[in-house]
Amino acid sequence: MAFSRCLACMEKLSPGTSVCPSCGSPVPCPPNSPDSLPPGFVLEKYIIGREISRGGSSITYRAFDRQLETVRCIKEFYPLFSRRRRDMSVYPMPGEEPRFQRELAHFQREAQLLSALSDRHVARIADVCDKLDMNGSSYVVMEYLDGSTLDTYIRSLKHGLPWESARDIMVSVMDTVSSIHQQGILHRDISLNNIFLLRDGSVRLIDFGSAETMDTAQRFSEAAWPSSKKFYSPPEQVLCRSQGPGTDVYAAGVCMFKLVAGGFPHDWKAGMPLPSLRSLGFSVPPLYDQVISRATQPEREKRYATAAEMLRALKAIAFPPPAPPPKAPPQPHTYKTILWIIVLLSFVSIFLIWRGLQGSSVPDGGQSLSQQSESVSREPDASVAFTMETPAPSNGLKNHLIPGLTDAFPADFPDLKPAEPPQLGREEY
C-alpha cells in the first residue's frame, strides 16, 4: 500500500498532489543530506521523513508510526567519524572502532536515562517511545515536538524577552531540572539550544546526550565523558573536575541572562561573573539580577546548592502590581449639559414660585378673584333670568351684555347699560 502522506510534514495527501498544501514541500519529498537516511526509508514500523537537525554524534529525523498513525521523532547514532553503506548501515572510519563503540554505548545510555525519566513521569522532557538497535547503529524514538529551540526563537526576534516571560520559562526549566536531580541525573548541557519552545508556549528540556548520573559526575575525570559548551559551562566542567547540581545551576543562570539580553557582552568571557542586566540598561527587578549573580558564581560553593533552591528564588521574583486604568477625561459637552439642566431647573423654580405668589395674593375687597368667582357661581341672583341660550353675566362683562337682557337685571346693577350689538358680517354668523 502506497504511503499517502507528505514526508516533510507527515500530513495526508490527495492522489496526484504535486505540492503539499500544508507545508508547501514538493511531492515527492526532496532528499536529505547525502549521508543521511533518505525520506521514505523504513525502520520496522517507522517511515523516515525529512531531516530535522544534526549534531556531533547523531542525526534527528521526522518519522511516522504506521501502527499508531502518529508523528514521531527519531534520533540516529551517527558520529562524524562514521560512514554509511548502500544498505544504510553505519560503520566507523578505519582506526575509530574503539571510539565508535565508546560513543555508541554512551548514546544507548542516554536512551536508557530518558526512558527511565519517562517511566517516572518527569514533566517537560521529550518522552521516549521506543529504542532500536540495528544497521550497526542505534535509534531512539521520541515524541515529536512542534516548535523551535529558544536559541532559534531569540535569534528570530533579534532581541531578548521581557523579564516576566524569561522568569516563567526558567521556572518551568528549573522545575524539570530539580526533578531529574532527584532521580540522580545531571543534565550537564543546559542551554537555550536545548530548551524547546512549543507552539502552545510550554517548554521542554531536550538533548540528554551529556547527561550523567550523580555518582559518575562527582568522580569525574577526563577519561570519562568530557563535555562543555561555550558560555554555559562552569569552570569545573571545562576543567573536567568533579561536578554536581551546581553545574546545571550555573548553566541555568546563564540562560536567564541571555533570555533577557539576547546575547552576551563582547568583553565578557566564560568563567567571569556576568554583569547585572540593570547596569546594561535592562529594566528588571533587582531580585532577578541577584538570582543570576548567585547562580553564575565561578566558585561552586557560592552558588545555589540545589536546583530546588534556585527554583524557590525564581518563584520569589514578584510581578509588579498592575497599573490602575487611566481615568477617562470628562467630555466637553458634559459641562454644557449640566449648565442647561441648572438653567432649566432655575426657570421651573421661578415659575412655580410666581404661581404660588399669584394664588396667595388677595384684592382690596377681601377676597381673591377665584374666591369671588366661586361665590358667584354658588349663589346666583334669583332675579336674573337665564335661558339655555344665554350665558351667565359676570362683573367683568358690563359692556358685552346682549340687548334685551338688561331689563331682567335688578337695581343692584345701576351701572350696567345695554351695549350696542356688534356689527358682524353674515358669514360670521
Could you explain the architecture of this structure?
- The protein is of the alpha+beta class.
- It contains ten helices and 13 strands.
- The chain has helices spanning 97-119, 150-157, 163-182, 214-218, 235-238, 245-261, 286-295, 307-315, 332-360, 369-378; strands at 42-43, 46-54, 58-65, 70-77, 82-84, 90-92, 128-134, 137-143, 147-149, 185-186, 195-198, 203-205, 212-213.
- The strands form four sheets. Strands 1-2-3-4-8-7 form a six-stranded antiparallel beta sheet, covered by helices on one side. Strands 9-11-12 form a three-stranded antiparallel beta sheet.
- A hairpin with a 5-residue loop joins strand 5 and strand 6.
- Helix 3 packs antiparallel against helix 6 (245-261).
- The longest helix has 29 residues, at 332-360.
- It is extended, with a radius of gyration of 49 Å.
- Residues 372-409 and 424-429 have low confidence and may be disordered.
